[in-house]
């Protein structure tokens, strides 16, 4: 079962905490990360994969240079402009699994995937259904809270089995100058929740960051068909 943590810490600090292994209540088991170890990100797009629906976070300021999807009609007319990738060729991308539902492997079919698509619009289309308007207040216990930042400390597949997506984040939220940090940890559901909250509060100045350590552990191949089939074979292999 996925373990979820929503611990609260005071006073707030602009740091993200990345844990080694399972979440621990012992502060000594956690690693404090300073501002110099953070990379600011923004959502660059979404994609489907054999593992599910994925959000792609890219370095802040680079999303606007991502080429749009090819237009078959313009390609036939040879009118499709070629946009160089530039720095995106080497830029670190952080893929977040936000739904492993079977219907989201070929398209954004579930209400959760569609809600995320709506939140990625500018301005966000926020219906408050999958993400209730009081979701942040419920997390913080403070009515009228505003989310200031999301710090991602881990977003990767479990090293032992490769079948569980592990996600760890710290949310900085509160009212006015009274800000506190809240740990949100678990799997793809918690990744969806953290990203959805960040997009909801983006018009109010919310920012997203990831630790350099989290970016260094990215393996995009883990989202591919070959990886998915290998894990299915392991899961269904007969004993003995």
Any overview of this molecule?
This protein is of the alpha+beta class and 240 residues long. The protein is built from six helices and ten strands; from the N terminus they run βββββαβααβββαβαα. Strand 7 and strand 8 form a beta hairpin.
Topology of helices and strands:
Blueprint: E1 8-9, E2 16-19, E3 30-33, E4 38-49, E5 52-59, H1 72-76, E6 94-99, H2 111-119, H3 135-140, E7 146-157, E8 165-175, E9 178-186, H4 188-200, E10 207-211, H5 212-216, H6 225-236
Parallel strand pairs: 7-10
Antiparallel strand pairs: 1-9, 2-3, 4-5, 4-10, 5-6, 7-8, 8-9
Provide a compact summary of the structure.
This protein has 240 residues and is an alpha+beta fold. It has six helices and ten strands.
Defining key terms:
10 strands; disordered C terminus; two-stranded antiparallel sheet; 240 residues; globular; 6 helices; alpha+beta; eight-stranded mixed β-sheet; 30% strand; single chain
Structural class designation: alpha+beta
Mean pLDDT: 78
Q: How far from one another are the termini?
A: 26 Å
Helical fraction:
10-25%
Low-confidence regions = 1-29, 85-90, 229-240
Largest sheet, strands/sense/barrel = 8 strands, mixed
Taking strands numbered 1, 2, ... along the chain, how are they ordered across the largest sheet? 1-9-8-7-10-4-5-6
Number of helical segments?
Answer: 6
Count of individual beta strands:
10
Q: Give the SSE order as H and E letters.
A: EEEEEHEHHEEEHEHH
What's the overall geometry?
A: globular
Radius of gyration: 19 Å
Q: How much beta, percentage-wise?
A: 25-35%
């Amino acid at each position: 079962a996925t373990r979820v943590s929503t611990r609260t810490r005071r006073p707030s600090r602009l740091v993200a905490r990345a844990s080694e292994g399972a979440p621990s209540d012992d502060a000594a088991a956690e690693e404090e990360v300073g501002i110099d170890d953070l990379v600011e990100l923004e959502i660059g797009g979404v994609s489907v994969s054999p593992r599910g629906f994925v959000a792609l976070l890219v370095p802040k300021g680079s999303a606007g240079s991502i080429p749009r999807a090819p237009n078959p009609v313009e390609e036939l007319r040879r009118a499709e402009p070629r946009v160089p990738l530039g720095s995106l060729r080497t830029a670190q991308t952080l893929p977040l699994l936000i739904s492993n539902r079977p219907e989201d492997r070929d398209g954004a079919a579930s209400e959760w995937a569609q809600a995320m698509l709506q939140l990625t619009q500018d301005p966000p289309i926020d219906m408050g259904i999958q993400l209730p308007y009081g979701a942040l207040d419920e997390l913080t216990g403070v009515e009228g809270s505003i989310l200031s930042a999301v710090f991602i400390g881990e977003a990767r597949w479990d090293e032992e089995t490769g079948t569980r997506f592990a996600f760890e984040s710290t949310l900085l939220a509160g009212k006015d100058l009274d800000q506190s940090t809240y740990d949100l940890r678990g799997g793809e559901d918690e990744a969806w929740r953290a990203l959805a909250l960040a997009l909801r509060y983006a018009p109010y100045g919310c920012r997203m960051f990831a630790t350099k350590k989290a970016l260094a552990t990215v393996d995009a191949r883990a989202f591919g068909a070959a990886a998915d089939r290998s894990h299915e074979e392991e899961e269904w292999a007969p004993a003995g």
